[in-house]
UniProtKB/TrEMBL annotation:
One of its GO terms (cellular component) is cytoplasm. PANTHER family: GLUTAMATE--TRNA LIGASE, GLUTAMATE--TRNA LIGASE, MITOCHONDRIAL-RELATED. This is Glutamate--tRNA ligase. Its main location: cytoplasm. One of its GO terms (molecular function) is tRNA binding.
Amino acid sequence: MVKTRFAPSPTGFLHVGGLRTALFSYLFAKHHGGKFLLRIEDTDRERLVDGGIENILKSLRWAGIKPDEGIDLDESGKVIQTGKNGPYIQSERLKIYHKHVDRLIKDDHAYYCFCSKERLAELRQIQEANKQATGYDGLCREMPLAEAKKRVTAGESHVIRMKMPKTGITKFTDLVRGDVEFKNELIDDQVILKADRFPTYHLAVVVDDHLMEITHVIRAEEWLPSTPKHIELYKMFGWKPPEFAHLSLLVNEQKQKLSKRHGDVAVRDFIDKGYLPEAMVNFIAFLGWNPGDEREMFDLDSLIKEFDFAKISKAAGVFNLEKLDWFNREYLKKMPSAELIKICLPMFRDRRYEIGDNDWLGKVLSLEKKRVTTLVELVESIKFVFEDTPYEAQILVWKKSSKEETKNVLEKLVNCLNKISVQDWTKTGMESRVGGWMKENEFGTGNVLWPMRVALSGQKNSPGPFEIAEVLGKEETIERLRMAIKKLE
């Protein structure tokens, strides 16, 4: 059975690149009827961020990516672990790693290293000055084990390194990049257990992926040079390596690696700005993958059905914000009213708006639903319905008209609207009655509808006046028109 995993470090909020890795891992597993596991790699103790695990889990859940095994959130929002291969948080697995390191030392596949940070820094400087490849020079590699253990017993600070073969070639077939090979002589002896007794990524990822029965490792391109080290560790343990797929980097439109210096990169940033999960997932899926035809709109189920590594590109994925905005507008336009109301309600409550029933709220949202990009923009764009919007009297005046003429038109418009019954107070009903009245009195469209729209919205750019009037209701509409008349006096 196919089994993939996503194993983020809680050293910050989930990056959009991490979301893509999780999404592709999830899609591949589900496409093959397999399972998706979520593990937390928290061995870098100095960079841990409070709430990092919860943020990762909430961001994945927002995107519709739910693990079958590993770390998850319960109904109360508490972090839980489910499955037979736990613990799924690496800091809770130290005894497992120590056991496997001891095995490597016993089998002469690893050794104690007592080199100080100062010596390693000096070594690096010399290598760089001589234009040599940087890496550990193997000073402690041939130290007799008895001597090394004596120094350990004496309390001397040390790390443990793997014994990378110094001859030959490590080969593997990457699901994205095809056949890849590395000369072993160019790869240094990687630290696998740090002085603080925590494993490095390289040891922990191999042990965990094997014990958790991972069949396919899908990760970022930056881990490609580490793969031969991992494959050699699998060989040292006598285990079969999983298949590997290394995804290309994500870059911005300037072809720079995505980073906080260049704008938003955390999934949370996009959630807070009001992007829809459906749009983000659809957009992220196309950062390196495409279906091979002109189709662009895919929900999660469609992506699962279509996903195939044969359609993944080796080229860097360009995070084009304009394209994300396009996806979000398309999904926003098509979103059912009831669903949109449910999403927006907390935002209305945060602003302490007085809201009516769902039918009315649906009409309010429909005023701007097709004109905005994000949920935040949507709620902001319709705030004129709930609160007074200050505006200057001059913007009520249509082109070559005057304040006096505009005041006169609005006074007559109020009389016209007063004659419309509450039952006929609909967009269609008002268009018919006011349209007939305008024709009868030979009023120009702009001379009536422009000041009416500005009076009701307080804005130069807004939905049509009859749509706004229907939402505001007869009493509020006439009150706002009368306020506009006062401004023109």
